[in-house]
Amino acid sequence: MTDSRNRKIADQIQRELSELIRLEMRDPRVSMVTLTDVELARDYSHAKVFFTHLGNAAQVASCKNGLNSAAGFLRMQLARRLTIRVVPALHFEVDESIETGARLSKLINDAVAEDAKHSHED
After folding, report:
1. Where does the pLDDT of residue 65 fall: very low under 50, low under 70, confident under 90, or very high at 90 and above?
2. CB 81 within 8 A of CB 13
């Protein structure tokens, strides 16, 4: 039961943070951000918030710095919106899974195309 409660709270944190970032943040470094997941500690003391950003590596790093510098503000805003006793400390991390998936998909497609090319040559 605690796992499903943990997941529900993590999902609610993700929804609220998405809205807060979109509507309340004025930091120019934080734009074109999509929150992809929230991992919540069992005791709700910490939340690892994963995000993707459309931009180059420098822009992604800048966005991560902007999000982490606004973590206190966002936590305070979450405290006003959530009905849990402990509002977790927020830690923002870049979600590499989408990029990794795209890279693997490209490698698979390239291998299939190469294999098909060699099959037709025979």
Report:
1. very high
2. no
| Res 120: pLDDT | 67
Closest CA to 39 of 19, 18, 15, 14: 14
Task: Write out the CATH class of domain 2-96.
Answer: alpha beta
pTM for this entry? 0.80
Residue whose C-alpha is closest to residue 44's, from 14, 75, 10: 10
3-state secondary structure of 38: strand
Residues 122, 116: contact at Cβ < 8 Å?
A: no
Maximal C-alpha separation, the chain: 68
The CA distances from residue 99 to 22, 29, 50, 56, 122, in Å, are 23, 21, 13, 12, 35
Question: Tokens representing 78?
Answer: 């979450």
Number of Cβ within 10 Å of residue 37's Cβ equals 14
